[in-house]
UniProtKB/TrEMBL annotation:
Molecular function in Gene Ontology: hydrolase activity
Keyword set, alphabetical order: Hydrolase, Membrane, Transmembrane, Transmembrane helix
Naturally occurring in which organism (per UniProt): Nocardioides vastitatis
Family matches, as InterPro entries: HAD-like_SerB, HAD-like_sf, HAD_hydro_SerB1, HAD_sf
Family membership: Belongs to the HAD-like hydrolase superfamily. SerB family.
NCBIfam families from the UniProt entry: HAD-SF-IB, HAD-SF-IB-hyp1
Name of the protein in its database record: HAD family hydrolase
Membrane-crossing residue ranges in chain numbering: 265-286
């Protein structure tokens, strides 16, 4: 690849991340306001997938939409493989994340915002509520009890992110903004997914809007990809961390919390390569189970 082409591609990605972060902050609404915040300059920011919720929220959404005939078995099998990899290996692959989120957003093209919000309520009860990590939920409640606002920060669509925040009694959410015209989704994103650097941009923009002191704030995530967001705040914490984040957290004296059972590969000394082999087996099983049980 020519240097100029590579530079242009990186610049374009940076611009899209910036736009995604700014769009997420602009779309963020307070779902549950504190009457009198005891700590008005402090807040906590939580990643969702594998931090607040077991697995990928976008997959749970996609499965619910599949059952409502939004798309085909072939589509959901592809998403199921990525979910199996994510759950067994415990590491986000950026290409998998991009494919899963972009595919899911393409599925809602032509549907209305109101339709997704109404169906999202049903899907939360069916597939998400029982997958909330109790330990992470308790951490979020601790911040609320201290009079701090608590925001979710996720690559999931803002409509679903806001729903999860509302159902958990949190302040609000920052999520990927899907373009819609006259209340109908176009299948395109505003900028890019709210992932990696875009999360940090969104948090910074929200902090400026809400008058927050990031040095007094906390952030929680399972993924090394969220390092830009974690390093923004004064109190970062690794939740169910992937190996790279666990190593970084230990090296820098960050708090680490692991609420998983039976999947603690890093703690057991297993290498990611071995887990990837397990993911391949899990993926094959998932493909068979999807066809058998999702219809």
């Amino acid at each position: 690849m020519a240097p100029s082409t590579d530079r242009h591609r990186r610049l374009n990605l940076q611009q899209r991340s910036t736009l995604a972060g700014e769009a997420a902050a602009a779309a963020a609404e307070v779902e549950n306001a504190l009457t009198h915040p005891a700590e008005p300059f402090a807040a906590a920011f939580f990643d969702v997938d594998n931090t607040v919720m077991q697995g990928a929220s976008i997959f749970h959404l996609a499965r619910g939409l599949y059952r409502r005939k939004f798309f085909t078995t072939r589509d959901i099998v592809g998403a199921a493989w990525k979910q199996a990899y994510f759950r067994v290996v415990g590491v986000e692959d950026p290409e998998h994340v991009a494919d899963a989120r972009n595919s899911a957003l393409a599925f809602i093209a032509g549907h209305t915002v109101q339709e997704l919000e109404e169906i999202g309520e049903e899907i939360f009860d069916e597939a998400m509520a029982h997958r909330i990590w109790p330990g992470t939920r308790a951490l979020a409640q601790m911040h609320l009890d201290q009079g701090q606002r608590v925001w979710l920060v996720t690559a999931a669509p803002i409509e679903i992110a806001s729903l999860i925040a509302r159902r958990l009694g949190l302040t609000g959410a920052l999520g990927t903004v899907a373009e819609h015209v006259d209340g109908v989704y176009t299948g395109r994103l505003v900028g890019d997914m709210l992932h990696g650097p875009a999360k940090a941009i969104a948090v910074q923009a929200l902090a400026e809007r809400e008058g927050l002191d990031l040095a007094a704030c906390s952030a929680y995530s399972d993924s090394y990809n969220d390092l830009p967001m974690l390093t923004l705040v004064g109190d970062p914490c690794a939740i169910n961390p992937d190996p790279k984040l666990r190593a970084h957290a230990r090296a820098h004296g960050w708090r680490v919390r692991d609420y998983r059972t039976g999947r603690k590969a890093a703690r057991a000394g297993l290498v990611v390569g071995s887990a990837a082999t397990g993911a391949a087996v899990a993926g094959a099983l998932v493909r068979r189970q999807v066809r058998r049980h999702l219809s």
